[in-house]
Design a protein that fits this description.
Helices cover 19% and strands 33% of the residues. The chain is of the alpha+beta class. The two termini are 24 Å apart. It has one domain. It has a three-stranded antiparallel β-sheet. Strands 4-5 form a two-stranded antiparallel ribbon. It has a two-stranded antiparallel ribbon with strand order 6-7. About 10% of the residues have low confidence.
């Protein structure tokens, strides 16, 4: 993995839906057992940002909650 780029990024598929891509694993990102694909661009960007905040620091996170633009809560508990 190139350390100059974030671990998670967004990619547009041929149907104009978006996915969060995990550069470290070289596959679509998963969160809570769900593959993060079929998203709107805005939602994918927000989720990628949150995933980079959670996993990009190298520090363990015990609890993180973020409210997305559509008032959906994304939670991570370790």
């Amino acid at each position: 993995m190139n350390s100059s780029r974030p671990r998670y990024d967004v990619i547009c598929d041929p149907l104009d839906m978006w996915m969060v891509w995990d550069h470290q694993a070289e596959e679509p990102a998963c969160f809570g057992g769900q593959i993060l694909n079929g998203l709107t661009e805005g939602h994918a960007v927000e989720v990628a940002k949150i995933m980079n905040e959670i996993y990009g620091t190298g520090r363990p996170v015990h609890r993180a909650t973020s409210i997305l633009a559509d008032d959906t809560e994304l939670r991570y508990v370790s």
